[in-house]
Amino acid sequence: MHNEGWDLSSNDYLGLAGSAELRDEFMQAMASGAAMGSGGSRLLRGNHRAHTRLEEEAADLFGAEASLYFSSGFLANAAVFSTLPQRGDIVVYDTLIHASVHDGMRLSRAESAGAAHNDVAAFEDEIVQWRRRGGTGRPWLAVESLYSMDGDAAPLDDLAALADRHDGIVVIDEAHATGVLGPQGRGLGAHLEGRPNVISLHTCGKALGLMGALLCAPRVLIDFLVNRCRPFIYTTSPSPLMAEAVRLALLRILSDEDIGRERRDELRRRVGRVGAALTKKCGFEPTGTHIQPIVVGRDARALELAEGLQKRGFDIRAIRPPTVPEGTARLRMSLTLNTPEGALLEFVDALAEEQELMRS
What we know:
The protein contains 12 helices and 12 strands.
């Protein structure tokens, strides 16, 4: 399906992907002489100064000991969970965690167990039961800071405290928060960065408008990944040109400069206004974030509703199992600065009308 109509489905939350600001950063990166291709894996000829400079500055910016740049968030998650948890460990994951975490766990030697969404007690129960069965290793807690299909935030402080109590490590996927939420857009777990038992993942291809992902962690874990992680060792490294563009953009977006602050403030205003309209006209409880699920239940109903809204000029898609649990097919409304506020409010009116048509 082509991209047609007002954007209500992308992850380009700040409207930066096609912006003049990022084009300027990319042109500056080209002028610096950064190569378009890397020429090999990072442990061979493919390790460029653009990669290491980005990783050093990103670690400082996010407050971590070290960082590692991957070509995508999917690859970074798969790398972490296939490499760091060891035989005898357990990964306890939120049942709504990203698919990439599941793929990483399938390649891991560690056990895994799902915990009910955002239920800290359920996470602890899984750890306690594992210990009773003879588990002697380390628990790893896998969560998203902001969930991609539900738009709700994880109880990160409680999960960090749980990791402290059980000698565990919490892995926070900030994919849908980086650039938008937290101090200066540094994510909902920004205050936990730099702790010895916290790993965070910041994707660069969503709100930041570019490409790749930065994994922030204690240096000992980053060093372990560099030497033992097959998805890192045996793949051609990311474009040095893109790495340089990301480095230049990070300092402007994740700061109080206009490119980041004004866009975050404007998106926040739209979230509030659209949320109020959804409640008044459609009866939906707003999430208070830039991700708003419109849960309709049956797959066919979600497809019908999406089609009706697409015909009205709104690019919104139906999300069905297995991406979401059975019986919770939905439209995923993504608020971005690519769509004017007026068009967002027109969408709410159109949604209310389509709901009424489906009931008649």
